[in-house]
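[job 0412] stage=complex_fold ligand=FE2/S2 (inorganic) cluster status=START
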Amino acid sequence: MNRVLKEIPENDPLMIAEQKAMIEQAIAENRERPGAVMLVLNQVQTEIGHVSPSMQAYIARKLNVPLGQVHGVVTFYSFFKTQPRGKHTIKFCLGTACYVAGVPQLVEKAKQMLNIELGQTTPDGQITLEECRCVGACSQAPVVVVNEEVQGKVRPNKFPQILRKVQQ
Ligand code: FES
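[job 0412] stage=complex_fold status=DONE, emitting structure tokens
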């Protein structure tokens, strides 16, 4: 835990006064309440948008609980993100219909073009790639959700076009 807190990246919210104050406030408001870990993480995720490894270690120390407990909650619920999300999000439906219709090939294409993995954000902070569950548009499989807009029947050769539109 200490090592993570000794090497906090300079763009981490813990290094930004205003965001650190938000984290402190979430801890102060919830520390005596039952389920404090979940409450603090929830508030921090909502207000800051992610809970980095350093933030997890900091929260664990301040709440006096093992880091594993905080980490366990963060990794169990997909609501929690450990990295900041990009300006745009492209989600790939991993539901059965989309999977069968070729989402894995689409994911490969996206990873190749952007040079990042699912769950990661491009270094310029523009695009985050994520997976999602069935969005109820199975007849349109394979489906991607670009900034909340569902797009169906997306073939890998159409992906560059989607990317160009997002990057405009
Ligand atoms: S499986 Fe993808 S929309 Fe239903």
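Strands lie at 88-93, 127-132, 144-146, 149-151.
[job 0412] exit 0
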